[in-house]
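Handout, page 2. Input:
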Amino acid sequence: MIKKENLDKTNAWPFVEAKKMLRERKSLIEKKGKITLQTGYGPSGLPHIGTFGEVARTSMMVNALRHLTDLPTEIITFSDDMDGLRKVPDNVPQKEILQKNLHKPLTQVPDPFGKFKSFGEHNNEMLKKFLNNFNFEYNFKSSTSLYKSGFFNSSLQTILKNHDGIMNIILPTLGKERQKTYSPFLPICPDTGQVLEIPIKEIDVEKSKIIFDNNGKDLEASILDGNCKLQWKVDWAMRWYALDVDFEMYGKDLIESAILSTKIINLIGKTNPSGFSYELFLDEKGEKISKSKGNGITIDQWLEYASPESLSLYMYQNPKRAKKLYKEIVPKAVDEYLDCIEKGKAQNEFQLLMNPAWHVHNGKIPKENTIMSFSMLLNLVETSNADNKELLWKFVKRYKINISEKEHPIFDKLVGYAIKYYNDFIKLKKKYKKPNDDEKLALEALVKNLDNCNDNMIPEDIQTLIYSTGKENGYSDNLRDWFKLIYEVVFGDENGPRMGFFISFFGIKETKDLILNKIK
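Output:
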């Protein structure tokens, strides 16, 4: 049990948001006897890393709630799969199949991958498979299933009864032309199967029916059992209402939508959920990550190069700040994860609550000792020419005799990730510097001075020798340039590992041979 004083003091954001929700919805939650949190997914494209971020962060909230209350919690992962397909994504095969089925509900659009009954079902299954791989606890709900089963019927009738009030909320936010055709209800065309955005002519509240103006022809449709769906902002409010949602986080691009949905749920008789808006995910160009574009690093790509936990930790950090998601950020994210694990060993209870790894691991930070950083391991992949895990492990064990794969499961996985990341990404971008005559003399002096070292020396003493060599060979005023020279010649990059530590691990003779080979 965590001490109450530490729970009260911590300002880690999952605890801050959990406390805020418990305050705002205290009586409602106590009456229900449970807490419902929701995440939303629009399956118009393949699940991307932003979708994962929402579920991961909501799961961190659940972890915090379990230390603050005994009430049961539930995460609903809701797929808006009855939405009409508005455009063809860039990152799918057989685009012509989707082109022929534009504006149909996603669960009525054929699967271009040929694996499932529909494009919506395909994307839903991809999402569930991914979330299951992360062992997230969630309850998946499909918009199509809830509409067609009648689950939403009574809530839809409530929306219809409040049609005029809802229109008063929405219409002022629309342009004049859109105001003329806007309807909160979208009928499914019986002829084409498309989701239609057409104006209402007449409402029959008692029979739960609407007569629409379909290009001059009357179209009568029941609002029940999936014959109509709701426009997005009204749908969001209805979902909160029907599912009794207590908390939902959303990207800052949906703040205005959340404000309108809040007004609607309040109008129809319930209190809106506690909310939390996060900053958006960007690609390397600073553009918003899009399901249809497929830009930025994908979920699968991250997991090829780093652990799920490193991705979760990246999602934990600064949710109110925009995050760039592309391959170059992976090593830094992994090293921050390793650093958090290492710090956790010496932290007290309050400090642990502020440690991102505590939230990633649901309060149980691994005890494994860090052998080296991921960045260092990438350098080792290059300098050892190791192309498989077994070979790289043999190299590691030459200098860390008493370690084993079984005792270091995190590092063992890191070895495989490092080989993959280096070969797929770093190797292609390497640009090795060819030293001029003066630079060559300085590096040769370093090799000569390393003759005075042995493999039993501590890294700090080797580092001191490297400093003094630089000072003696023209770099006394700018040692940064000295290390930059070493990195560019030896590693093909402006940055590199702390050389004293690298040499003590890699070996004196091996380092001398490495530098001489690079000079040649």
